[in-house]
Amino acid sequence: MTTVALDPRAGRRCHNALNSLHATHYFSPDLGRELGALGVTHPRAVNFAVRSAALGPVGAGTVTAAFYNYKHDLVARHVPAVWETATPEQVLAARARAVDATLRRLLGEQTVASPEMAEAASLALRAAEACSRSARPLYSAHADLPVPEEPHLAYWHAATLLREHRGDGHLAALMSAWLDGLEAMVTHTATGKGMTPKWVRDTRGWTPEDWDAAAGRLRERGLLDEAGELTEQGLALREGVERDTDRLDRAPYEHLGADGVARLTELGSGFARAALAAGAFPADLLGKR
Q1: How far is CA 276 from CA 90, 199, 245, in A?
Q2: Cβ atoms of 195 and 286 closer than 8 Å
Q3: Any long-range contacts for 277-282 (C-beta under 8 Å, 24+ apart)?
Q4: Partner residues linked to 230 by β-bridges
Q5: How does pLDDT run along the chain (289 residues), one tens digit per residue?
Q6: Could you give the C-alpha distances from 159 to 16, 30, 69, 123, in angstroms and in order?
Q7: Cα 171 to Cα 81, 122, 135, 162, 179, distances in angstroms
Q8: How many CB atoms within 10 Å of residue 152?
């Protein structure tokens, strides 16, 4: 039997497809409605609560460390105060209800109940079997949660595990590259694949002055030019970060195998395209300006 070698970027492509669907709930009105019913109404408090709830009723320091690119002052305005309004258990249950409603609305009942969704859930869960807990707090916390029974929720759960596993490794790669949280966002935006400066500042708590100071530090290192574009050195640094992230995140996709990764990427890309076509994300979310 011939074993097909796994392409070095296959895991990255698969993750991107799965993460696109995972991320839809952060922009969903269903999430605001469910958290609002618990008394959590500020958009930043909603974000901090749903992503950190698996960690338990943690404080601002833990959230800032685990999320990496948020300004601590913003986190501290909402955490741990949010846990006085809703417990982590209540938040996790509300998040599950919001995800269920969001996926049904974006993908349609037929897709949610399809054999393809069940297949994707099975493949994604199999990949997640090889994730490592070591030095991966957000992944490890979510790995303690039970796997939902319904296939579309099981698929979303597995996508969350794979997203947080890669994300935790990505932070290690960013630290190794000497990029702090805001510098990481500035360089990612400069690739054209990240959020616009406005979205970064509005959602992460940074000011225009913070952004300009980070850009200045990057220019001094030769990573950005005067126009805010990545230099050759900057491009090489960003690609090095992604290669290191790929290496740290390789185990789940090697475990699934090349054929399984290709099939999961195909299925996940189809779900992500459908969600995008249904208006899952703001039109001005991504870009350099």
Answers
A1: 29, 18, 26
A2: yes
A3: 278/105, 278/106, 278/107, 280/24, 280/27, 280/28, 280/106, 281/23, 281/24, 281/27, 282/27, 282/199
A4: 224
A5: 445 689 989 999 999 999 999 999 999 999 999 999 999 999 999 999 999 999 999 999 999 999 999 999 999 999 999 999 999 999 999 999 999 999 999 999 999 999 999 999 999 999 999 999 999 999 999 999 999 999 999 999 999 999 999 999 999 999 999 999 999 999 999 999 999 999 999 999 999 999 999 999 999 999 999 999 999 999 999 999 999 999 999 999 999 999 999 999 999 999 999 999 999 999 999 998 8
A6: 10, 19, 21, 10
A7: 26, 28, 10, 14, 9
A8: 24
Pair of tokens at residue 116: 């393809």
- What are 171's two structure tokens? 């932070």
